[in-house]
Amino acid sequence: RVFAKWGAKRISERGWARGGAMESQRREDEKAARHAADGSESLQSGVSRSEQSRVEAARGEDGASELWRPNMALRVVTLPFVIVFLSAHALITVTLIDTFLALATLIMSRLGSGARVRLRWIQAKALEVWMTPLIGFLEHFGGLTMRVHGEKFVEGESAIVVVNHRSWVDSVALYCISRQVNAHGALKFFAKKSLMLFPIYGVAGHVLNACVFITRSASRATRRLRSEFAHLTELALEQHLAIKPPQFWMISYLEGTRRTSKKVQEAREFALERGLKPLTHVLQPRVKGFVAMATELRPAAHAVYDITLGYAHARNDEDNPQPAFTSILFDYCCGRERVLHVYQRRIPMAEVPEDEAALREFVYALYQKKDELLEQFETKREFPQPKLEWT
């Protein structure tokens, strides 16, 4: 970042930042306006011409920082770095994960339960190492600032995580959030099976066990989910294993899709048909998946983590929700700060109902609370206290 600022200053000094005739003309116009304003003030207060020149010179020194536009200047310096960083990350993914770790996974998955637990640890540590550079890039170089409110999470425990879904950035944000308890190697997402074909990273998601790929067929998806839940529970309950299985954060976007104006209207109609309260800032949750998850994972999970995300700079264009992943990588890493507001609650599994009807009401109550929080966020641009320490 220091190097980028130095380079941006050099660019600004040479007139390249937002350069060209338009920028030069703008600077000349601003200088003339300031000169005229200072001239009128000097005449009124009786300040001498020499004193006025001294003030103008001093302001000129500070003017460089005022006229310097870091967003464009930093982009010139950092854009090559971003491209190199992403290329290196992709190359490492292909070499170490999609090739060597994939072979190790293929072999170890055929062995006994002890080997499978070791494989899970390898996958978790590999995911942690794989994501750490990207998290560090976003937080320390990309201008991503986290403002976390609510209750603290517990290090080392497994959890079912319920999150509102706004954009692709939500998943990246969850890795940053999980870092507060060193759980960024424990995240597991549900994803469409077609995403496994996504170049480089689709295979990596499968090899690292970071994604549970499911089909659109309800029966096949149910079987796949129950198989994954049963496997996690079985490993957690094994008593004779020398190594305990790693923790997991099972991520669930109960809205089922990102929020758009069309989806909001469909959700309102769904709520009115069933006598539910229409929600404004989130979609109506799909409760069947959570009921199955809470039932199957109850022996293995310690709590439900209720996370609500708010983006300070998100646009109100619901058909093109912001922020986009590329905006964080390219725009906000180049001089502009991206503020991510997080409100989190920890609900122990003992407080989560077991009855299916009660679980449905539990989920609807969660999302009504999210809607209220986001309504407050729209007004105050901040979630309620208490504010948690974030480093």
Keywords for this entry:
391 residues; Glycerol-3-phosphate (1)-acyltransferase; seven-stranded mixed β-sheet; globular; disordered N terminus
Q: Topology, please?
A:
Elements: H1 2-13, H2 21-45, H3 49-67, H4 70-108, H5 113-141, E1 144-150, E2 159-163, H6 169-178, E3 187-192, H7 201-207, E4 211-214, H8 218-237, E5 249-252, H9 261-273, H10 287-297, E6 303-311, H11 325-331, E7 338-348, H12 356-380
Parallel strand pairs: 1-7, 2-5, 2-6, 3-4, 3-5
Antiparallel strand pairs: 6-7
Unreliable residue runs: 1-24, 40-77
Arithmetic mean of pLDDT: 74
What's the architecture of the largest domain, going by CATH?
A: 3-Layer(aba) Sandwich
What is the CATH first-level class name of the largest domain?
Alpha Beta
Total strands: 7
Structural class: alpha/beta
H/E element sequence: HHHHHEEHEHEHEHHEHEH
Shape: globular
Radius of gyration: 26 Å
Number of domains: 2
* Fraction in beta strands: 5-15%
Helix tally equals 12
Reported by name, the CATH topology of the largest domain is Glycerol-3-phosphate (1)-acyltransferase
Distance between the termini: 17 Å
Strand order of the largest sheet: 1-7-6-2-5-3-4
